[in-house]
């Protein structure tokens, strides 16, 4: 994310520049890995485990937003929960011809090889919020409108979908109420009518000071089943929200309020839960306002690892800047996408002419960190797919810090265009064992070059 100082009043710009000096440009400082994404603001995380990867579906808060101004959704994926690959935006408000705005909090699920992404959007005709459903053959899309109209429409938001062991799927959603309906096996139609889940204080806790909302339930339900127990984790109270949860013996209740998952923290007055088990661990996704310029309408998704208590209750989870530990290591000897990032400073991403995404808007001193790279007995050379409409620059390969040990430098020439790609190769010395790898970009002024992918040889 490039902060655009020129649109800010002088004092605000100075404060952010001062923060950047402290937070972003301290030479050699080890980087924290929350928030997960630094290239844009993201919100409303919805993780999905599929074929050994975690796919993360998010909303996108526009830079400088002063409301939930959200036009598109985004997809990211990771095999290790620290290095996240940007898959761009495979679904937007425009995907739904009947929708006019508000790409808000949704969830994607897989069934029979198809991926269904349930999202709230504003129905143009009625002006009401409605739930649409996108479908794709791939977790990264592109998604198309599955039915050409709202699946349900009652002015309420934030769908979550859960498929029970017997194959019955349920769609839950709602703010201020909480609804469910039984989805048919096709996942794009339902049986029966939308039904309200009674919001009792026994089921969802007691809120004081708001006569129209006597329980803590606010929005953003996330329903799942674990060891025979049904969980509904939700954004509670407003505002600011915290994350609470209830459990039930069945998918439609009766629900019992169980307490706090994540206290009110993190400079955003909303929060939004997403819970998965992956590779033997349990992970809690949420959002906050932790990036520079972040706040209630410029949010960022983050993740923490946690362990259920022996009785199935969820411990209190706090927001951290370190995030979840890495699952395994990253293999540098297979092609890796340049947009696979643990942390970055100064770069952005865009769709690449060759397919997938590339990183760009790279200036002198920007860097990308890739965490836990297993060089083993050593790397001999490095190749990168690059393009430059200017005169190029250099990719410095450094270990364990943006100013860490230099193990190679690759020169990038001008190629005649930002999408005119060539492959550059350079020797590598001293890269053995497992390290955080920093690509530090160097050159003259202005934008230097784009990178599509990279690979080391052993
Ligand atoms: O992101 C827009 C809205 O804010 C979501 O639908 C709510 O859950 C809250 O996070």
Automatic annotation (TrEMBL):
Q: Which InterPro entries match?
A: CBM6, Cellulose-bd_IV, Galactose-bd-like_sf, Glyco_hydro_43, Glyco_hydro_beta-prop_sf, Glycosyl_Hydrlase_43_Enz
GO function term, MF aspect, one = hydrolase activity, hydrolyzing O-glycosyl compounds
List residue numbers at the site (Important for catalytic activity, responsible for pKa modulation of the active site Glu and correct orientation of both the proton donor and substrate): 158
Superkingdom of this protein's organism = Bacteria
Per UniProt, the keywords (alphabetical) are: Carbohydrate metabolism, Glycosidase, Hydrolase, Polysaccharide degradation, Signal, Xylan degradation
Q: Keyword Ubl conjugation on this protein?
A: no
Q: Does the keyword Hydrolase apply?
A: yes
List the GO biological process terms.
xylan catabolic process
Q: Where is the CBM6 domain?
A: 334-457
Under SMART domains, the record lists: CBD_IV (SM00606)
Query: What is the residue range of the signal peptide feature?
Result: 1-32
Q: According to its UniProt record, which protein family does this protein belong to? A: Belongs to the glycosyl hydrolase 43 family.
Which protein, by its recorded name, is this? Answer: Carbohydrate binding module (Family 6)
């Amino acid at each position: 994310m490039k902060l655009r100082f020129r649109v800010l009043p002088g004092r605000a710009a100075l404060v952010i520049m001062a923060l950047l000096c402290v937070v972003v440009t301290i030479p050699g400082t080890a980087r924290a890995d929350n928030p997960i994404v630094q290239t844009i603001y993201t919100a409303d995380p919805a993780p999905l485990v599929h074929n050994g990867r975690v796919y993360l579906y998010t909303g996108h808060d526009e830079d400088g937003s002063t409301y939930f101004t959200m036009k598109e959704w985004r997809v990211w994926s990771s095999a290790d929960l620290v290095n996240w690959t940007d898959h761009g935006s495979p679904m937007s408000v425009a995907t739904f011809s009947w929708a006019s705005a508000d790409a808000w909090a949704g969830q994607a699920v897989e069934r029979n090889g198809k991926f269904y992404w349930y999202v709230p959007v504003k129905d143009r005709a009625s002006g009401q919020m409605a739930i649409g459903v996108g479908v794709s053959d791939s977790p990264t899309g592109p998604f198309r409108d599955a039915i050409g109209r709202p699946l349900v429409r009652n002015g309420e938001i934030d769908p979550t979908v859960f498929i029970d062991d017997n194959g019955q799927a349920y769609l839950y959603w709602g703010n201020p109420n909480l609804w469910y309906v039984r989805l048919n096996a096709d996942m794009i139609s339902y049986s029966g009518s939308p039904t309200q889940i009674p919001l009792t204080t026994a089921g969802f806790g007691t809120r004081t000071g708001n006569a129209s909302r006597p329980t803590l339930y606010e929005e953003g339900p996330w329903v799942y089943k674990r060891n025979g127990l049904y969980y509904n984790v939700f954004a509670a109270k407003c505002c600011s929200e915290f994350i609470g949860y209830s459990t039930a013996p069945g998918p439609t209740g009766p629900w019992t309020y169980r307490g706090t998952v994540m206290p009110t923290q993190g400079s955003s007055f909303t929060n939004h839960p997403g819970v998965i088990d992956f590779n033997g661990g349990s992970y809690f996704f949420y959002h906050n306002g932790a990036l520079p310029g972040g706040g209630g309408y410029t949010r960022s998704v983050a993740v923490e690892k946690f362990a259920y208590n022996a009785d199935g209750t969820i411990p209190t989870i706090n927001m951290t800047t370190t995030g979840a530990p890495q699952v395994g290591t990253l293999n540098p000897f297979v092609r890796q996408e340049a947009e696979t990032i643990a942390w970055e400073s100064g770069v952005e991403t865009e769709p690449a002419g060759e397919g997938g995404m590339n990183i760009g808007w790279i200036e002198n001193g920007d860097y990308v960190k890739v965490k836990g790279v297993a060089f083993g007995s050593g790397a001999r050379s490095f190749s990168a797919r690059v393009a430059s409409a200017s005169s190029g620059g250099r990719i410095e390969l450094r270990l364990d810090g943006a100013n860490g040990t230099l193990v190679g430098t690759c020169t990038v020439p001008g190629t005649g265009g930002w999408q005119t790609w060539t492959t550059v190769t350079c020797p590598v010395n001293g890269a053995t064992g497992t390290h955080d790898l920093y690509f530090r970009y160097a050159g003259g002024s202005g934008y230097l070059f784009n990178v599509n992918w990279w690979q080391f040889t052993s």
